[in-house]
Amino acid sequence: MRFLISRNSICYFGKVSELRQLMQSWSRSTVTLHEYIIAGQTLTYLN
Protein backbone atom coordinates (compact mmCIF):
# COMPACT_ATOMS: atom_id res chain seq x y z
CA MET A 1 0.00 0.00 0.00
CA ARG A 2 1.51 3.31 -1.09
CA PHE A 3 0.34 6.90 -1.06
CA LEU A 4 1.30 9.99 -2.97
CA ILE A 5 0.30 12.86 -0.72
CA SER A 6 0.15 16.48 -1.79
CA ARG A 7 -1.30 19.50 -0.07
CA ASN A 8 -4.83 19.03 -1.41
CA SER A 9 -5.03 15.44 -2.58
CA ILE A 10 -4.16 11.84 -1.82
CA CYS A 11 -3.40 9.24 -4.50
CA TYR A 12 -3.56 5.59 -3.44
CA PHE A 13 -1.76 2.63 -5.00
CA GLY A 14 -2.71 -0.81 -3.71
CA LYS A 15 -5.51 -3.30 -3.11
CA VAL A 16 -9.07 -2.13 -2.54
CA SER A 17 -9.35 -4.44 0.48
CA GLU A 18 -6.37 -2.68 2.11
CA LEU A 19 -7.97 0.69 1.47
CA ARG A 20 -11.23 -0.53 3.06
CA GLN A 21 -9.34 -1.62 6.18
CA LEU A 22 -7.61 1.74 6.34
CA MET A 23 -10.92 3.61 6.02
CA GLN A 24 -12.52 1.50 8.76
CA SER A 25 -9.71 2.13 11.20
CA TRP A 26 -9.59 5.83 10.27
CA SER A 27 -13.33 6.22 10.90
CA ARG A 28 -12.68 5.35 14.56
CA SER A 29 -9.99 8.02 14.89
CA THR A 30 -10.37 11.73 15.52
CA VAL A 31 -7.87 13.10 13.00
CA THR A 32 -8.23 14.07 9.35
CA LEU A 33 -7.59 11.38 6.75
CA HIS A 34 -4.48 13.30 5.65
CA GLU A 35 -3.05 13.25 9.19
CA TYR A 36 -3.99 9.61 9.66
CA ILE A 37 -2.21 8.48 6.50
CA ILE A 38 0.89 10.56 7.22
CA ALA A 39 1.07 9.12 10.75
CA GLY A 40 0.61 5.61 9.35
CA GLN A 41 3.35 6.12 6.77
CA THR A 42 5.69 7.39 9.48
CA LEU A 43 4.98 4.30 11.59
CA THR A 44 5.56 2.05 8.59
CA TYR A 45 8.99 3.57 8.01
CA LEU A 46 9.95 3.29 11.68
CA ASN A 47 9.00 -0.39 12.05
Number of structurally distinct domains: 1
Please give the number of β-strands.
2
Helix percentage range: 55-70%
Overall mean pLDDT stands at 80
Largest beta-sheet details = 2 strands, antiparallel
Primary descriptors:
alpha+beta; 55% helix; 2 strands; globular; single chain
Explain what you see.
There is one protein chain. This protein is 55% helix and 17% strand. It has 47 residues and is of the alpha+beta class. The relative contact order is 0.18. The longest helix is centred in the C-terminal third of the chain and has 14 residues, at 33-46. Strands 1-2 form a two-stranded antiparallel sheet. The radius of gyration is 10 Å and the shape is globular.
Write the layout of secondary structure elements.
Elements: E1 2-5, E2 10-13, H1 16-27, H2 33-46
Antiparallel strand pairs: 1-2
Quick synopsis:
With 47 residues, the chain is an alpha+beta fold. The chain has two helices and two strands; from the N terminus they run ββαα.
